[in-house]
Amino acid sequence: MTANPILKICAIATVASLALPAAAISASLPTAAQFSESAVRPDPATPALDPGARWWRVYADPVLESLENRGQRDSVTVQEAAARLAQARAHMIAADAARQPSVTLDANGTNQSGPLINAAGSSGGLLQASARLSYELDILGRLGKNRDAARSDVRAGEALLRDARLLTEADIARTYLSLRTADEDARLLREAATCARDSFRITQGRRQTGFESELGVARAEAELSAIEADVLAVDRRRHELEHALGFLVGDSGLSVAPQSTALDAPPQIPADIPAAVLARRPDVAAAQAAVRAAELRVGVARTAWFPTLTLTAGGGFASPQLSDLISSSVRSLGLDLLMALPPFDGGRRKSGIASAQADLDLAAARYRRQVLTAFRDVDDQLSAGRILTDQAAVTGRTVTSADRALALSASRHGNGLASELEVLDARRTDLKARRAALQVRGARYLATVGLIQALGGGWDVPAERATAAD
After folding, report:
1. How is domain 100-137+307-340 classified at the CATH fold level?
2. What is the pTM assigned to this prediction?
């Protein structure tokens, strides 16, 4: 009979909790079938690039492959994200354990006097052993929501681990490709320095014979000094990039030998990338899981207004002698149903709901920001790829014209119609054009890496996944 009022209270609390407004996000997230920037010209030979694959293999560089493998294994960034995921999994296990019964065993001995001790014909000690089982009845789903929120935290941690791996992969690729660009730039600058040195030597000789002014000698020397300074600047930049690679792969003593072969054209970006691919971005997935966890915790906070019911059962033995403990006639056994509801808490429960709702609003805002950031990142890289492709065509024509001018100057010099200074001048112009083309090619490489990262590790999306994401 005593349990009926408790059950009535629980039923009323359940109905009241169902009548409460659900915590939902009234957020209008931006959606689009395509990005505002169209991709560069399509290439039928564009390789497939699924996010589950090792995307850096599109660059076909064994050194980059080795660095990426080392980074996945030894990167501090990846290790930190893995540790955070392990923490989230531990919290999920703890949240799930709260829904299971708990058993407590107690044993103690005391020195005391009393009727029990005197009746047993002994004085002094009393030995006790007891066991208690406790189980909270999750009528309102509070423990279940806590467990589901912890699972959402694990999903967010898994997405953040993928994001850390993708970030490390992209940083390694960017740094390595920048280092390769610096190697080729240093080679071109050294050729330019040799050319400027020969020009300075010839100018000095012409000055001694009276065919060149002192101003011409000073200009030739200044040009040589400027190129030598550029060589040193590129060398310094290369060392910084090498050190950055060492940090990314977890090896402070890393050394990357200069490459003798020049960078080829970067892989072509496909046209008409669907916006649905953003659903697989790990940072977007992590933000979405965080929103789900915050929604569940709002529900948990609302259940604080209602009572908690705990079923407990306990039993034990007491005896003045250890040998008689189990056979003792002094035994206890009990079964209780406990209801806890603080009638006055000074506003703690109300503030807990407000805090959980604020966390939900914050998670929703971060999710919207992450989606908008994803669109911006992809559009930025698509526009960069499109403009750099056009710029590469212009610098390519410049290199072709400079090569032709150099060939004509060399031919004229061989026929005695041009001086060596004219050939050296054509050579310097050709090297400047090649350096400009190299910088554009390096920027195109970085743009493709940035696009792959912005798309979550690839640009392919199977038809069934694209439909689900839409």
Report:
1. Outer membrane efflux proteins (OEP) (2.20.200)
2. 0.72
